[in-house]
Amino acid sequence: MNWISNVVPPKIRSFLKRETPENLWVKCPDSGELVFHKDLEANLYVVPNSGYHMRIPALARLDALFDDGAYESLPTPEVPADPLKFRDVKRYSDRLKDYRARTGAADSIRLAAGALQGIEVTVAVQDFDFLGGSLGMAAGEAIVAGIFRAIDHKTPFIIFTASGGARMQEGMFSLMQMPRTTVAIQLLKAAKLPYIVVLTNPTTGGVTASYAMLGDIHIAEPGAVIGFAGARVIEQTIRERLPEGFQRAEYLREHGMIDIVVPRPQMRETLGRICRLLTKAPALAAA
Predict the structure, then answer these.
(1) What residue segments make up the domains of the chain, in order of their start?
(2) Residue 180 contacts residue 170 (beta carbons within 8 Å)
């Protein structure tokens, strides 16, 4: 008990007590630093002092990417919601409804088109908040639709990957999205259009085994975990201790698996420069 509860009358006490919003301060998982959530959002969800890249909402990523934050949200194809009538602790169809209500997205891939430093681009963003960004029929169809749109409009195709892998609730229908997206990417390359992959934390499983590793350019955000199987699974299988930083973006860059590691605040400028280079567009005039 304290003096407010002991001495101050209830009516006055109600004025003194203020509700504090949740998540007002965010703790950095790396340094333990507390960051005001508005400052974190303004810095694209990168902790200012430690540089730790926290997960950024898909819509916030799109807002930060396109010129003046202006873009067109593209529709994604409809697919059967629950082809296997799958059920674990709850029905898969009910789980999908929950995540759609929670994220406002139809599935784990969002498509958008707009200008990036004056270059028209088609973009796909994988949303980890939707069932761990897992690859199912809807996500596969969305990627294929985005690639076909890029071919029709003769634009580069940029994808931001974030996934735990294939969606087990859809079984073989999920696994079939790996070759389907691979074929679509080959059509994009046959049209001589750039395919740029931005690997974010985490990019694993069947996504890494398919479209995430087929880009003309592979970019990664700092500290992103990128791989097929988890590090513990690999250690248990080969019975050896893995190197420090194994499967992290910086380790993969040093060993030639990715081309460049780019901090999120510099991503827009870097992607714009790469798109201009690959499409042979003139460089931007110096400010």
Answers:
(1) 16-54, 55-279
(2) no
